[in-house]
Write a structure and sequence with these properties.
single chain; Annexin V, domain 1; extended; mainly alpha
Length: about 140
């Protein structure tokens, strides 16, 4: 992207992201034009996927991307987009917490509150917590 465009982008990022990017830049010796093109293509695909999700939800995005790129590539892109956006979703801290810690925190909450929290967790973690909750 060059120093001007790169610095303009970095100014808009949170400190944590700047640190991650700086670390990666420091560890890269050189990037070939082919690698650069691959990275830019992937970035554009992920942004298109985000736009599709905003326009019509995840299934709309999946349909459009599948038609444009094939099912496997569409699933790969949507997985990356979903993973990248998870950290900015509500309950991001809960997503990082251990299932047993979550269980201790939410076990005395109303069922609706528990359901709301569980819907923002990874499926396997939500299943773990749900399995350990008392039936009443």
């Amino acid at each position: 992207l060059g120093p001007e465009a790169s610095s303009a982008i970095l100014k808009k990022l949170p400190e944590q992201e700047i640190q991650k990017i700086t670390y990666e830049i420091a560890n890269i010796s050189s990037v070939t034009s082919e690698q650069r093109q691959t990275i830019l293509d992937e970035f554009l695909e992920m942004n298109k996927a985000r736009d599709y999700i905003i326009e019509g939800g995840i299934e709309y995005a999946r349909t459009l991307l599948s038609k444009a790129l094939g099912t496997q590539r569409a699933n790969d892109i949507l997985s990356k987009v979903t993973e990248a956006t998870q950290q900015y979703r509500p309950f991001a801290i809960a997503r990082k917490a251990d299932a047993h810690q979550l269980l201790n925190v939410i076990s005395y909450e109303h069922p609706q509150t528990i359901a709301l929290i569980l819907c923002y967790l990874q499926a396997d973690k939500a299943a773990q917590v749900l399995a350990e909750l008392p039936e009443d």
